[in-house]
Amino acid sequence: MDPPVAEPSGSADEPDPSSPQPPPPPPPTVSPSAAAAAAAAAAATTSSSSPSSSQPSRYESQKRRDWNTFLQYLRNHKPPLTLSRCSGAHVIEFLKYLDQFGKTKVHAQDCPYFGHPNPPAPCPCPLRQAWGSLDALIGRLRAAYEESGGRPDSNPFATSVVRIYLREVRESQAKARGIPYEKKKRKRQTGMTSTSSSSSASASSSKASDKAGEGGSGIAGGGE
To answer: Where is there biased composition of kind Gly residues (predicted)?
Structure first.
């Protein structure tokens, strides 16, 4: 009888730990042009994902310029003024000072084109700052004052004398130029009246269809 054959202790597929292992495959090579393109794409992605707060908005830039202009006006004032001693009267002086740089024609009462929005010929009336520009300027300076550490209760741009002055400028320019400043309010009221009239007309038409021959037309009159 043949002697029994001893079974192998391990599988033939298992590598021998004592045998040397093959080196790992080399990393894929990247051409210089591909590397440069990848770097440019990464830089563009980083630039596009950066927060927009790093760039000041147009409003913030304009507010900063207005604030610096006002501080320069205080330094050039005779006698020089400090911000802590600035009052609403000084703010009005500043607004009148800016009129020399205005581009809006404001007709005098003795001008033949007083009250005409589109004068047919030029006239010697002076140029002024438009009311809308002054109103927006005061809003920016009021915010800049408090952002610079000023207290709201001592803000010279929020005083009643400044508000009264702006209202007088608005009314006088509206008369001189023949352009009222209440178009938005009238448009809003007209839109609300039109919507109400349309709704009333639709409801009345539906009611008239359901009850044909009963009563009058039932259409409610719109607002004036």
So the answer is: 214-224
| Contact partners, residue 142, CB within 8 Å, separation at least 6 | 155, 157, 158
CATH number of the domain located at residue range(s) 57-180 in this protein: 1.10.150
- pTM, full prediction: 0.58
Q: Give 17's DSSP letter.
A: T
| CA distance linking residue 187 with residue 179, whole number of Å | 15
Instruction: Give the tens place of pLDDT for each residue, 170-200.
Output: 999 999 988 876 655 554 554 445 455 555 5
Task: Give the Cα separation of 16 and 185 in Å (integer).
Answer: 92
Which distant-in-sequence residues (6+ apart) come within 8 Å of 138 by Cβ? 91, 95, 157, 162, 166
Q: Where are the domains of the chain?
A: 57-180
